[in-house]
Amino acid sequence: xxxxxLSEVQREIFKLKDEKHWPIIPYDVANAIIAEVRAHNCxxxxxxxxxxxxxxxxxxxxxxxxxxLTTIEATPERAKILRExxxxxxxxxKITVLEGDAKTLLPTLTGPFxxxxxxxxxxxxxxxxxxxxxxxxxxxxxxxxxxxSHASKMQDFLEYMQNSPEYxxxxxxxxxxxxxxxxx
Length: 184
Known about the structure:
Strand order of the largest sheet: 3-2-1-4-5-7-6
Helix content: 40-55%
Radius of gyration: 15 Å
Strand content: 15-25%
Number of domains: 1
Structural class: alpha/beta
Shape: globular
CATH class: Alpha Beta
CATH topology: Rossmann fold
């Protein structure tokens, strides 16, 4: 994996984000994701809400050469750009891009996954988690973006994560709020 190529594509995405109105995670959230993925030694991750690939490239930065990521993007235009960015970054062998509704695609995936990043339709966070939960083993890292800025849209998810004995959950006040949980 060529980290220079990866970084170059990430910089290009950040330069275009405002002009194109892409909802890209901020730098502090990106850095937290990279650090958490590295600390948990994640190697087979899943992303829900791939947008144009910035966070997917962050995941690979944290996972290193052995890392594999499956990312789901519902919007056809964004999925096309995401695929192009993955190819330009030279990591098409490490990132699988799926286009469509995550709730439909999740039951078709085979895990286990050691990390799940949720940054898609806010009202669907709990449905996404429940759909993929059978593919998660003990130690799996769950990351969810915008849990403070969009808390009213995901109350069921937040209550589930904070009250479930299956997860050890913390929220970092980065960006719109980043939930970090580990499956026990």
